[in-house]
Amino acid sequence: MRSVLQAPSVLPQANDPCWCGSGRKYKRCHKRSEGRVLPGEISPMRSVPDHIARPTYADTGEPVAWDEPRIKSPETIERMRHAGVVAAEILRLTGEFLRPGVTTDEVDEYCHQLYIERDSYPSTLNYHHYPKSLCTSANEVICHGIPDSRAMRDGDIMNLDVTAFVGGVHGDTNATFLIGDVDPQGRELVRITEECTWKGIEAVKPGRPISDIGRAIEEHAKAHRLGVVKAFVGHGIGEQFHSDIQVLHYYDSRNSMIMRPGMTFTIEPMITLGTWQHKMWDDEWTAVTADGKRTAQFEHTCLVTESGVEVLTAGEGAVSPSAPWSR
Ligand code: MF3
Ligand code: CO
Ligand code: CO
Fold this sequence. Notes:
This protein is about 25% helix and about 20% strand. It is α+β, with helices and mostly antiparallel strands. 2-amino-4-trifluoromethylsulfanyl-butyric acid binds near residues 124, 135, 266 and 268.
């Protein structure tokens, strides 16, 4: 057995020598990783029964993009409504399963079963070889955290990102949940992030440029001195998981596509306590804040209507807006 150095219960001051005996200042040594999310063991891929329809990339791990109309037919919209309800329900139920001590791999196992019970395929599974059925992103993890052997801890904030493929289309939604007792700063981050998502959704109007969405999100984040991640954006969605519409979560005049009734895309801002800049783990999936400070996210799949917006993942059965912190 390998012996692992354990941090003492009383930690040094930043400029004192590190407790590990390296001779370096504590702040240049173990202080950097303490309290951070560390990668755990990833279990083997779970399988989906044959009677469930699979997206084209499910067997190869390599999606091949095709031309898909940005404006969906009424028949496709009907199928997307259903995929949205399924994704929303799986997200809510998986959120209810979270508690300190449970590993994110156990969360994946539970969530995987929920997809199957609803005859849906977990869209992330083998998407560009991603190995799991949802993304679990804790604390400083911005997005695409892979479920593994790490147990949730009291005080964590945990984003679950669920995407269901059913009826030939995808529904994509995520939310950040509070694990046990979260400090006031963490709760505030989560609350403002959900508000940012809804400010973005309220900016959806036919005939307006899609940059209105990022403008509304950024304005609200800035008013609370929070950062907006730039590297990950909302996306067109339908028969393909990610199609060519891009929804920036900050203002950029070049994000000028005009919103039209029948368009479907996600809005999914990632808001930070510190820097908006990110780093990648060696697994090439997990994106974390460059300064290690916490970040939160909420996501909905949206349809542009004649009068505004229909949120396909926020209906009956969805996580209710204030649920994560009012429980
Ligand atoms: N659901 C994520 C999104 O909101 C995408 C996850 S892709 C994966 O767009 F491969 F990381 F799972
Ligand atoms: Co998405
Ligand atoms: Co998502």
